[in-house]
Amino acid sequence: MCGRYSLSPEESREIMDIIRQVQGNFKTGEIFPTDPVPVLMEAGEELAPEVMVWGYPGVGGKGRSIINARSETALERPMFRQSVLGRRCVFPTTGFYEWGPASGQKRKYRFQLPGRDRALYLAGLWNDYGGQRRCVILTTAANPSMAGIHDRMPLVLEREQLADWVHSPQAAGELLRRTPPALAYEEVEPSQQLSLF
User: What gap in Å lies between CA 183 and CA 195, rounded to an integer?
Assistant: First the structure.
């Protein structure tokens, strides 16, 4: 699952270049579900950024937004099928967050590609809901670099796979089944325990 990610232009020239092209309001830093977010999508033969809302409406337009789709079953799910076939996008990020166990309490970890100035691209889908474009992040089984923290992770794309993901249904089908690259991670901050008393 991917419930938060980072969009920090000061950490990546690639991300800064993408953000400069975006028209629309969105925030940077830690990104939450239902935030307006920039995604890369098809623009003729190119990719261009556009701002969408992160999360499809809940079932029947009620309840919590649906922010992730499982890559293994997205083609089988009516909510995602048409998006997989023809409305694919890419979330440009500088990392994502996941919570995992450590000494009996949940800890917050930030995952990113190893090295400096590396944008992290996540495979996504989009759809139009009443004139508002909304998007979800695809997830897959965790690779060894993630498995000790969580059993799921975003479907990470390499820079050279972005155009294939967005433009080619055949390549997209293959990318849905691939194992993401190894990631580096660090503990960000301890999660705060809530108390009712």
Answer: 34
pTM of the model: 0.92
Contact yes or no for 149/73 (Cβ under 8 A) = no
Q: Decide if 33 contacts 67 (C-beta within 8 A).
A: yes
**CA dist., res. 180 & res. 168, Å (int):** 19
CATH number of this structure's domain 4-188: 3.90.1680.10
pLDDT one-digit tens code per residue, 157-191: 999 999 999 999 999 999 999 999 999 999 987 54
- The tally of CA atoms less than 13 A away on the side-chain side of residue 76 is 4
Break the chain into its structural domains and give their ranges.
Answer: 4-188
Residues near 186 by beta carbon (within 8 Å), at least 6 away in sequence: 109, 110
